[in-house]
Design a protein that fits this description.
It comes from Fictibacillus arsenicus. By secondary structure, the chain is an alpha/beta fold. It has 2 domains: 50 residues; 78 residues, Transcription elongation factor, GreA/GreB, C-terminal domain (Chitinase A, domain 3, Roll), CATH 3.10.50.30. The chain contains 4 helices and 8 strands, in the order E-H-H-H-E-E-E-E-E-H-E-E. Strands 3, 4, 5, 6, 7 and 8 form a 6-stranded mixed sheet that branches. The protein has a two-stranded parallel sheet with strand order 1-2. The protein is elongated.
Length: 137
């Protein structure tokens, strides 16, 4: 079985949510959401038991993989973006943490620095980016 890779922050959030749900389990006993809450607890326990936590220290890497922090530059307007590619459980675009299933991550995984990637966005157009930097834990 492949181990899921979670950031330290992602692991901490899941552990805190699980502890919160466990503490309030008795309150949920007669709640209509009981089944949902129990399945959420099982899901979190399953994720945590089959995951490893990335260390905080990051260093230059040869290619993009889950856990990489990448800096890309849009080829037309030269705008730069930095994203960390994470497991879907901790994806949060507001914090520049994108899912491995996102279009940018799918295009970048396995690529190296100075590689052009083409990303088709939902509106149908294609955006081209150059991978400027890759940092892995």
């Amino acid at each position: 079985m492949n181990m899921l890779k979670l950031t330290q922050e992602g692991t901490r959030k899941l552990e805190n949510e699980l502890q919160y749900l466990k503490k309030r389990k008795k309150e949920f006993r007669n709640s209509p959401e009981k089944d949902f809450i129990m399945s959420r607890m099982e899901e979190i326990e399953r994720v945590l038991s089959s995951s490893i936590t990335w260390p905080v220290v990051r260093e230059a890497a040869d290619f993009v993989e889950a856990g990489s922090t990448i800096t890309i530059e849009e080829t037309v307007y030269k705008e730069r973006y930095t994203y960390t590619i994470v497991h879907p459980y901790e994806a949060d675009p507001r914090d520049n943490m994108i899912s491995v299933h996102s279009p940018i991550a799918k295009a970048a995984i396995g690529k190296t620095v100075n590689t052009l990637i083409c990303v088709q966005v939902p509106a149908g157009e294609n955006l081209t980016y150059n991978i400027i930097d890759i940092q892995n834990c």
